[in-house]
Amino acid sequence: MQTADKHPSMATDVKTILKLKVPVIVQIGKRRMTMEEILDLAPGAILELDKGSEQWLELMANNKPIGKGSAVKVGENFGIRIEEIGSPRERAEAMAG
Fold it and tell me: Residue 15 domain-assigned?
């Protein structure tokens, strides 16, 4: 007998969990700055990041990496074309914390 058969509410719980919306972040790069540098930021300032313009962007869920991709334009918005993605298990573990 399947676990879901023994516990019908378990199947309902899984369906509910799969419908939860979680924030997804596409990170273009990082940089460490001193507090003074941060306080000196002004409109028009340009920050150089640690990634080259041709490197893949990092796709994150729950602040944990789950994949990589390249930037694309979708209408008037930015998007990401997935080039590498973790397994469903790896992605679920990232979202679980």
Answer: no
* Burial class of residue 44, CB neighbours in 10 A (0-12, 13-18, 19+): exposed
CA distances for 79 relative to 19, 44, 47, 69, angstroms: 22, 24, 21, 10
- Asked if 42 and 12 touch (Cβ cutoff 8 Å), the reply is no
Which residues are within 8 A (CB) of 72 and not within 5 positions of it... i.e. 6 or more apart?
A: 78, 79, 80, 81
Q: What is the pLDDT of residues 8-66, one digit of tens each?
A: 676 778 888 888 888 899 999 999 999 999 999 999 999 999 988 889 999 999 899 99
Best CA proximity match to 25, nearest among 74, 58, 71, 49:
58
pTM: 0.74
The CATH number that applies at residue 53 is: 2.30.330.10
9 found inside a domain:
no
